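Retrovirus-related Pol poly from transposon, pasting as requested.
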Amino acid sequence: MEHFASYLIGKPFRARSDHNALRWIRNFKQPKGQVARWIERLSVFDFEIEHRPGRSHGNADGVSRIPQDTREVQSGHVCNASNGNDETSPWCLRWTAKELSLHQHEDPEICRAIGWVKDGKRPPKEDITRMGPLMGKLWSKFDQLTLVDGLLYRIFENDNGNDRHLQICLPRKLIKEVLELTHDIPSAGHLGSQRLKEVIKRRFYWSDWQSDVEMHCKNCQICAERNGPSRKRRGMMVLDQPGYPMERVAMDIIGPLPKTPDGNRYILVVVDYFTKWPEAYAIPNQEARIIAQKLVDEWICRYGVMQRLHTDQGRNFESAVFKEIIDILGIKKTRTTPYHPQSDGLVERMNRTLKDILSKLVNERQDDWDRCLPQALLAYRSTVQTSTGFSPHFLMFGRETRIPVDLMTPEPPQAEVPPTTSEYAEKLRKRFERTYELTRVNTKKSSERYKDYYDAKAKDTTYNVGEKVWLYVPFVKKGKNLKLSRPWRGPYTIVKKISDVVYRIEKNANKRNRLVVHYNRLKPCFERPLKSLPNRPPNETKLQSKETTETRKENVENCSGQTPQTEPPTNGGNDEDEWTVRYFRRNLRQSRPSRAINGEEHGQNLPDEVQEDVQHLPDELQQDGPLSSMEQDNQRDGSDETLREPVEGNEGQSQAPPERPARTRKKPAWLRDYE
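Structure tokens follow.
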């Protein structure tokens, strides 16, 4: 309208819009803000608004669209589709049958088994015992092994005989990758060990595959953060039995509750552990100042100073004001561990009992609970407590309280009352002594009975200092959903064992992150990687070039149908493959022996044991070993002159080209895998 104002001002007109709400814009009685400014600017026009649906408003709607240029296409131009077979999911098509065959022949166990199957004869058991337990397990499955298209399979058949299929004999170097593909990726879902076993059993076989599956699931960090123990962990119960009144007092807060006419919303509950005497005070808020004032005015001024005060870790109980009052009165302050209210069980149970009684006494609006508190406390104090065998009123005052029903019946005859006050006080003192002693016995029996029941489902295990654990945190940050959260945090390290069930833990060796927690919130942490495999052969991690593939093909042809060229020594009889153990030990002590390493020639400054092992090194590892990544790049670029050719002789020296200075050789890839 402002754009065409020179044509519209002074003439009545009709404005059509698909925005129906504009029809009422001039009907506001008291417009404010932006709407008032709109009405002011439109007041100079004489118009009426007519609503038109969007389907009939195309003439204006189309013009309002943002213009977009269309790219001109050359006439007669045809786009040719690619004829290549690109892999859309390379992780699903990682191993071809040819590559799996190469990996199987590189595995010393499977390579021997292929020779057995081709010969159609199982070797004697005496020859297998010295090759290690894993080789023995594969030997025991000889009748179930078969070769299909050059791959070794195991024929699986269940007990009923209705499930029969082939399992690929998986080389040791591929086990970890298979477990990650069947458990860790999103499509695997991080399922449990039993489901993962079924997935593996349908496809693969290797020695000790079930224990490897269980260990992989057990060591998965994501699963550990989400899954709790199958049985809720419990530490053994620790008893803390007081021996006299006011030795130990517990305190807690109930609320918020409906606001009463007096402005109260919370209940401060205080209970004596020995007599079970409770007090409950209605308070408007749970500020530390209000709580400290109630505790001093209502409890300490009436019953005296307690020896120990036990609370949870609420900020009001840990404030500077509250701590100052505790220090002035000489009270020992103790507290529960985080998220473990069971360590203050008496007051927590009193809270439940008090809420149960109040719920039956309040009105429909539930706003008179503060007036019902005295009656609820009278009912609790006048009844016998199961653990002590006496009522809290009797243990506190030495006599039973009189309740309204006692007024309906005649008072029974009383025992002879002492004539003097001193005699009555002496009699009352002796009564307290007998009562308190009996109370200690009853409380001890009750506590031990409950401890036996609790410990029957507990584990008498402890954590050692330095051990890794997970911590259960039953809350989530704002904006996250509790049902989709992973409540186990960590891993943490045990720093100190405070008691049998209380530990101090820290994360990342940071003292600021130290926490004091209960045993029930901890579970052991199992770290990855997968457990070491004793007979794992040296190998490369990937097929990197055609040159390395062709070299391994030649080795496969020499190995196919027979045992490896380098035979184990005949001084066996042990349960492990001595040749493999010596080979691993040699690789850890030195790098590739046929070339100069770190400027030193082979054979210099080496122990006699290592020099003896070098002399027995297989020829194919001295001459035709896999190339390093730098050598492969140079060879692909055609710059063969940059590679140093080995000089004939047993020194194993290498000579650099004259135009380039000598350089230090990199360690081969197969050696870096075992460092």
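Note for the archive: The first strand starts at residue 13 and ends at 17.
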